[in-house]
Design a protein that fits this description.
The structure is a homodimer. Chain A is α/β, with parallel strands linked by helices and about 325 residues long. The first copy, chain A, is about 50% helix and about 10% strand. Chain A has two domains: about 210 residues, Rossmann fold (3-Layer(aba) Sandwich); about 70 residues. In chain A, strands 3-2-4-1-5-6-7 form a seven-stranded parallel sheet, with helices on both faces. In chain A, about 45% of the residues are buried. Chains A and B meet through helix 3, helix 7, helix 9, helix 11 and helix 12 of A and helix 3, helix 7, helix 9, helix 11 and helix 12 of B.
Amino acid sequence: MAVRTRDPDVLASAVLDGDRTALPRLLSVVEGGGEAARAVGRRVYTQTKGGYTVGITGPPGAGKSTLTDRLIGSLRGGGAEVAVLAVDPSSPYSGGALLGDRVRMMDHALDPGVFVRSMATRGHLGGLALAVPEAVRVLDAAGFPTVLVETVGVGQSEVEIAGAADTTMVVLTPGAGDGVQASKAGLLEVADIFVINKADHPQVAELERDLSFMMDLATWPNGWRPPIVRTIAVKGDGVGDVLAAIEAHRAHLSGGTGPSGLSLLEERRAARALSELRRVLAALLDRHVKDAVGESRYQQLMDEVAARRVDPWTAADEILRGVTGSGRDR
Amino acid sequence: MAVRTRDPDVLASAVLDGDRTALPRLLSVVEGGGEAARAVGRRVYTQTKGGYTVGITGPPGAGKSTLTDRLIGSLRGGGAEVAVLAVDPSSPYSGGALLGDRVRMMDHALDPGVFVRSMATRGHLGGLALAVPEAVRVLDAAGFPTVLVETVGVGQSEVEIAGAADTTMVVLTPGAGDGVQASKAGLLEVADIFVINKADHPQVAELERDLSFMMDLATWPNGWRPPIVRTIAVKGDGVGDVLAAIEAHRAHLSGGTGPSGLSLLEERRAARALSELRRVLAALLDRHVKDAVGESRYQQLMDEVAARRVDPWTAADEILRGVTGSGRDR
C-alpha cells in the first residue's frame, strides 16, 4: 500500500520495508537537504545491501543517455533490477523526467524493475557531491543491486560525482576533440573504463590512439589499466562488451587485495566513506564559520587578505574566534 | 651590527631595517612554526616589497640545482641580488647547506648579494605549504628582488610549493621517462616554462614532442602557452634563454589584465593569498578539531565511518560539538 506522507521517518521505513512507491518522495527529502535529509542519511547508512554503483560521465552529446538506456535494457534482459540517477548540477529542475533526454528512458516507465530519477542542485548543504551518495544509498537500501549514476557534462563536480562509484565509465566520441576534453576535465584520473561511442565515425582510431598514448604515460598501481570499448549505442552495438568490462572490473576489485588486507572494492568504498566524512565536516564547519563570523564580514576578510592589507593568520584568528565563541585562541 | 637574540620581534625588526645577519635565525623561527612564526608572519606580511618569485621543480636528477646555480650566476652578473629557498619535504635536516647538492652553491658563499637557505619539514602547523610562502615574504621584505624556490622532487607538496610562485619552471631531462613523470605528478598544470636540461641527450626531440603533444591537448585561457627551453646547465648553455623566458612570462603577467581589472600578476598573487588563508584556516580548524575531540577519538570515528558502522553526519556532529563546545548543533 502506497504511503502518502512526507514524513522522512515514515518514508524511510516504507522504503526499507520494500515499498518503492515511497522512493520518489524519500529522494526529494534527500535532495532538499537540511535536517530531514540528514535524518534519512543516518537512518539508511547502516541499512545498505552492498549494491554496485556504476558512474557514467563524459562530454555532452557523447551519447551517455542512449548508452545508459541500452545498459538498462541489457540488465533487465538478464532479469536484474536497476536504478538510474541522472545528475545535472546546472539544472534548476529535478525530480523525474524533466530533462529532455530523460524522455527516452520512458521506454522503461512501466517496468517496476527499473527506477529512473533526475537530480539537480537544491538546498542540500554540501551540494550534489553529498546528496548523490545519499541518494545512491537510498536506492541500494531499497534493494536495487545496481545503481547507474549518469552526469550530464564534464564539469568538475560532475566528474567527481561520477568518479565516486565502484566502476566509473567515461564515454567519448571521435572527431569531437574529446581527447582534449578528457585530458582537461580530469576524466583520465577517474576512468575505470573508456567507451568510445559513435564508433562508426572515421576518426575512431585517432581517438583510441590518443587515449592509449595518454594511458601509456600513467601508472596503474592496482594492476587495472582502463580498457577501451567501442560502441554504437543507437544500434546497441558493443553494449554487451561494456557490461563485460564492468563485470571484469568488478571481479578485479572484489578479487584483489589492497594494502590494508581488505579487498580493493572494500578499500575503495572505505576511502569514499572517509572522503564523504571530510566533505560533511567541511560543509558543516564552513556553514558554522559563516554563521559565526557573518557572511559579509567573512567576504570582507577574504578581500582584505587578497589585497594583502590583512595577513592570513590574523584573518584566520578572527574567524576561528567566531567559531569557538571565545577570544582564547588569539 | 649583528643581532644575537632569538627574539622574533627583534629579529624581524633587524631584517626589516636591512640587517641580513639576522636572516638565518628569523627563517628558523618561521620554519619552527608556532606562535613565534605566526608573529613574524603578521609582522612581515604588509612589509613586503613586491619581489618576484620563481619556482623550480622537476624530478630528482634533472639538474635543478645546477641550473639554479647558473641562474644565480647570471643574475649576479647583471648586478641583481638573489635569494634561494631549497625545499626538501622529506629531509629531516634544514637550516643551510646540509643537503649534498647545496655544496655547489658555496661558490656564492662569500657574496653578500646571494642568500641560500634549505628548508625541510619542522613543526610548522600546515607544513611547508605554509612555511615556504612565509619564508619567501621574509626574503622579499629583506630586500631581495628575486627569490628562487627550488624543490628536490615531484611529490605533491613539492609541486604545490613550486607552483605557488609568480613564474614556475619545470625542469625535465630526456631519456628518463620524464614525460611520464610530468604527466603523473601534475607538473603540466603548474608549468609556466618547461626546461629540457641535458639537451645534448639523443632523445631530446622525443621529450620535446611528447610535451608539445600534451600541451596541444590543453587550453591557455590567459594566452600564455609554456615555452620549451633547452639547456645544458653544466656548461651554462641556454641559461640566458631561461632568464629571457622568465622575463617574457613576467612581462606577460604584468602587462595582461584579468577579469577583475587587475593585472594577471596581481590576480595570481591575490589568488595565492586566498589559498593561503584557506590553508591557514583549515590547519587551525583541523588542530582545533583534534584538540577538542581528542586525537584518538577522532581516529576512532574515522575508522567507524570507513567501516560503515557510523554514518558521516553522526560523526561530523560529534566532532562539531567538540569544536563549538556545545550540544546545540545536534
